């Protein structure tokens, strides 16, 4: 299982290109990515296999030849229990600045459209050319990329967006600074009260903000960050489990083992043996 470092994900574009294009990290299966969000627009295109996407609380199962558009600051999670071949394109939100609403906002539809096949084909061609390595391939990839942007703006952009979505987007922008702090200090004894004081909120308000706009409570969100770091250490180091537990913010190895088993179904020692 390969997990990213934190819940509010920072997206960095590829060198010399205005986007990030890569193979999905859960391609080998046995993969869970908890609820998270980022400012970039993200497209997942499945070539082989299946993915189970959740956008907020709505399910979007994907199979061969299908894709999903994840909007900026849209809370999503991913389950890939089996091997798959999936390409991911991440586009910085500011790419669409010229098309923002007065709220500095843009939203793309998740629904089926006649343009879906062309979008999927463009993503395939972009990836194959980009990974080919031949001289001048960036120019060809860019030409396909700008065609894709044109289709997104003209065929997928939504003009009548639910006011609740706009409000949630604004709140998640505020939460992003909080989750960045949690990412940097996850190994420390953080609490809802401490974070509320740090960012000048009341604990009850911050708790409601997490639950309503991130779809997860503060405690579970922090636990997810700590577990993701711990999983990586289990995979990549030979450290003692008690040291991994303490080094990632757990009070003791028992608390770590209980939380780990509840999420992944096995004890840390079994997970390490299997991986």
Automatic annotation (TrEMBL):
The keyword Transcription applies. It holds the Pfam family AraC_binding. InterPro entries: AraC-bd, Homeodomain-like_sf, HTH-like, HTH_AraC, HTH_AraC-typ_CS, RmlC-like_jellyroll, Tscrpt_reg_AraC-type_HTH. Keywords: DNA-binding, Transcription, Transcription regulation. One of its GO terms (molecular function) is sequence-specific DNA binding. The keyword Hydrolase does not apply. Residues 176-274 form the HTH araC/xylS-type domain. This is AraC-type DNA-binding protein. It comes from Pseudobutyrivibrio xylanivorans DSM 14809.
């Amino acid at each position: 299982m390969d997990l990213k470092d934190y819940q509010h994900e920072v997206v960095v574009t590829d060198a010399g290109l205005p986007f990030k294009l890569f193979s999905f990290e859960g391609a080998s299966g046995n993969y869970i990515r908890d609820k998270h969000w980022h400012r970039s627009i993200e497209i997942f295109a499945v070539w082989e296999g299946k993915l189970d996407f959740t956008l907020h609380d709505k399910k979007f199962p994907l199979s061969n030849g299908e894709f999903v558009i994840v909007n900026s600051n849209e809370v999503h999670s991913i389950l890939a229990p089996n091997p798959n071949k999936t390409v991911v394109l991440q586009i910085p939100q500011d790419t669409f600045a010229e098309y923002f609403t007065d709220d500095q906002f843009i939203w793309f539809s998740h629904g089926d459209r006649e343009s879906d096949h062309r979008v999927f084909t463009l993503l395939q061609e972009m990836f194959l050319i980009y990974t080919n390595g031949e001289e001048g391939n960036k120019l060809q990839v860019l030409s396909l990329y700008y065609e894709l942007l044109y289709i997104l703006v003209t065929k997928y952009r939504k003009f009548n967006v639910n006011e609740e979505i706009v409000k949630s987007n604004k709140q998640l922008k505020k939460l992003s600074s909080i989750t960045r702090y949690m990412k940097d200090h996850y190994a420390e004894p953080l609490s809802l009260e401490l974070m509320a004081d740090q960012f000048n909120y009341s604990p009850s308000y911050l708790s409601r903000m997490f639950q309503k706009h991130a779809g997860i409570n503060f405690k579970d969100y922090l636990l997810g960050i700590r577990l993701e770091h711990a999983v990586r250490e289990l995979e990549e180091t030979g450290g003692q489990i008690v040291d991994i537990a303490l080094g990632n913010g757990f009070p003791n190895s028992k608390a770590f083992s209980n939380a780990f088993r509840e999420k992944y179904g096995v004890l840390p020692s079994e997970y390490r043996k299997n991986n």
